Amino acid sequence: MTGLPPVRYTIAPIRPASHLFEVTCTVSDPAPGGQVFRLPAWIPGSYMIREFARNIVTLRAECEGRAVVVDKLDKHTWRAARVAPGRALTLVYDVYAWDLSVRAAHLDPTHGFFNGTSMFLAVEGHAERRCLVEILPPPPTTSRRWKVATTLPRAVGEIGAAMPMGFGCYRTDSYDELVDHPVEMGTFTHEVFEAAGVPHEIALTGRHDCDTRRLCADLARICAWQIELFGLPAPVDRYLFLTMVVGDGYGGLEHRASTALLASRNDLPYPGMNGVPDGYKTFLGLCSHEYFHTWNVKRIRPAAFTPYDLQSENYTRLLWAFEGFTSYYDDLALVRSGVIPIEDYLGLLGKTVSNVLRGGGRLKQSVAESSFDAWIKYYRQDENAPNAIVSYYAKGALIALALDLQLRAASAGSVSLDDVMRLLWQRHGRTGVGVEEDGLFALVEEVGERGGKGAGRRLARWLAKAVHGTEDLPLARLLKPFGVACEVEGASKGPTLGAKLAPNSGEAKLASVYDDGPAQAAGLSAGDVLVAMDGLKVTGSSLEAQLARRKAGERVEIHAFRRDELMSFDVELAAAPADTAKLTLAAKPPAAALALRKGWLGG
Ligand SMILES: [Zn+2]
């Protein structure tokens, strides 16, 4: 729709110490009967209603300097009264930005960060209009050295166009694009590297001692591997990792040409570091995960997200494919690109298997159901979550693994899940056609048939059952032909209470009580604070050692506070359940297994 006037926005980090951005939105041809504006209720990639409008502190409208009446229609919708034809209407509003996550906005005298979904009111009827955004610098008392990191395209050719990494004008072709490029401003570290010929950038905000050369080298391998997996050309002509470094944090959100990340300082590589410590593996896995979304969910999308409805829940049963398959490939990319050794990868896979086995919810909820109810369950977990919910991330990743192994085994390694991803990319990613709710099964059948007649049909049926059912996956049996052993044991030799303690709380406070475990049978509940076992004091750090000296079947008296009342519970200890998986390379596997494993994990 070229030719129609653009919607113009300005963003000013006007009061950093008060965490306030001032935003303006100007429409040059408002609707004749009064113009309606809306702020999104959620941000794509994070499936929960967040009601960002609650952070709009003040809002007014004006037309050529004169105030215009604004009505609020619902929690995130406003309507400005009609103005004379040919006159522009401007909304001016303050956004409170003090959410240090990747999902909203944050502003203080050290930096500013925002997602468009927290800042830009959508102009009803103008979703396909071009947008021009002027990003203004902070007040001079803050810092004159602030720069801007974003993949928003610069408004080259417009008056006030931003210079690279500068304040000034940026532009997009639509509202959908406008809200899919987060923006960081401040005095961050900025590095550039190339992967498969595409420039990639990383911006690190917050104090850090990161060995950026090491980080860029590792990310370059991971990104290049992913680009090769889907095939050239890459879906982007530049990509940006926006990273907020904090003492203790973890989070990531995918966007079409960038990702916003929250990372723990000690997870980043430091100069002289040897090997790949667990924390760094976690951070690289997070980067790999969000990068994989550049294809899987940002371009290959569920039909239910085509387009997104940002006002209310968008239901799909497919998050096991978009988050689960992405979770499978995030760590797989680390080993396939040579960044971590195979043994480390098997260790990561073992953790995922254990995570799934530790939740009894996996026997009650399918990953399709978990996807559909993400808005009220996975994203709003309470103390009963382990008993009621299965993670479409973790179990979705294991379904991807099981599918990959079966595709490879049935075809002597000639087809794999990689072929399914490439077919998804061709049919849906490149075309923009959304994936229907049952769309994956036909694609798996098509790819599977290439590897052996009948194999595709069998695997498509297996996948439907795995996705809609609650049975455990036969991973040990599927891994064996690849020369990988999978053993499942109890987490400890000693008995268990069947409960999870709240982390970092010193006292032995129960975070969750597992269904049908000893604690639940004795009447203990989440929230109870254990103070003694058989008359001896119990703390968060001593409980495990005290249990290790006991045997399954023994009875112990536990004293605990519930609310302020001391209560006594008679607990019969049980053996620790077999929920800890260990994956190892089998000794002297046959040549066929070695060949299959090489195709799967490289090396
Ligand atoms: Zn994800």
From TrEMBL:
Question: Entry's Pfam families?
Answer: PDZ_2 (PF13180), Peptidase_M61 (PF05299), Peptidase_M61_N (PF17899)
InterPro entries (alphabetical)? PDZ, PDZ_sf, Peptidase_M4/M1_CTD_sf, Peptidase_M61, Peptidase_M61_catalytic, Peptidase_M61_N
Task: Fetch the Gene3D superfamilies from UniProt.
Answer: 2.30.42.10, 2.60.40.3650, Neutral Protease Domain 2
| Record domain PDZ: where | 485-564
Q: What is this protein called?
A: PDZ domain-containing protein
Species source reads Aromatoleum buckelii
Q: List the lineage, top down.
A: Bacteria, Pseudomonadati, Pseudomonadota, Betaproteobacteria, Rhodocyclales
